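To whoever is on call:

I kicked off a structure prediction for a single chain this morning and the downstream step that reads the tokens threw a length-mismatch warning. I double-checked the sequence; it's 321 residues and nothing unusual in it as far as I can see. Pasting both halves so you can look.
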Amino acid sequence: MPMSTAGQVIRCKAWEAGKPLVIEEVEVAPPQANEVRLKILFTSLCHTDVYFWEAKGQTPMFPRIFGHEAGGIVESVGEGVTDLKPGDHVLPVFTGECKECRHCRSEESNMCDLLRINTDRGVMLSDGKSRFSINGKPIYHFVGLCCGISTGLGATLNVAKPKKGSSVAIFGLGAVGLAAAEGARIAGASRIIGVDLNSKRFTEDGGVDRSVECTGSVNAMISAFECVHDGWGVAVLVGVPNRDDAFKTHPMNVLNEKTLKGTFFGNYKPRSDLPSVVEKYMKKELELEKFITHEVPFSEINKAFEYMLNGDGLRCVIRMD
């Protein structure tokens, strides 16, 4: 996209959710104050896209442009933007870091008060309006993020924090779960155990030291908590549950000193911490190529959904040609 488009409405192609997948041409307004407009080069699908597209658990909001695992370059910037310039390579992220709120100032949280995820908003924070439209009709935004690797990796490294030589169970072996396993490997775990919904509880040695749940199934969440060792076991919940799910376990599991934790985006602060994740990849400490199982052009977006829905792969890269 030529840089001469700065300040102008541009026309892009996207698919409308909630109906058979089609490619539509939409108008994208210029960035307003403190906003940037990106040219997406590559994107991928996550179960979160499918979850909201099917409108199974959260508030339905259509028409909406989905997709949230992407990489691209800055096309233009709005007034007041100083940290980015056209041509910069960037990752859109579904949460923010204003660096001023109580969460951003805390070393223990990454849940920015100002820029926290809101899947029901669907519009820009500044004026409550969408920047996407078709023939003057607004099209809702999605969550705008890159999450899979960071969420799983951080859930292990930043929240579960397994000690070297410990055992770690991973519930759910999609991209997020395997990223959690990568975190366990980097931490020096002696055993990394992959678990599916039909696996029996661990009984041979009293439980695992750490577990990370990456499925969104409430039954898997309960199993992940109950399978950790009494006295020091820590279970971390990552998956997004259905709206009406409830977590139930016997209070003795807590009294026996098992710890249950949650995590949001792997407890990474986007601006402060994501460069270190990229650095791990650049140094070959973090293996990412193995997560890519398919690649299709944007014109074949339906194939990417088929791969995801059929469980045929981990991540299908979509080239935005």
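Update from on-call: the warning came from a stale cache, not from the record. Cleared it. Sanity check on the structure: The chain has a mean pLDDT of 88.
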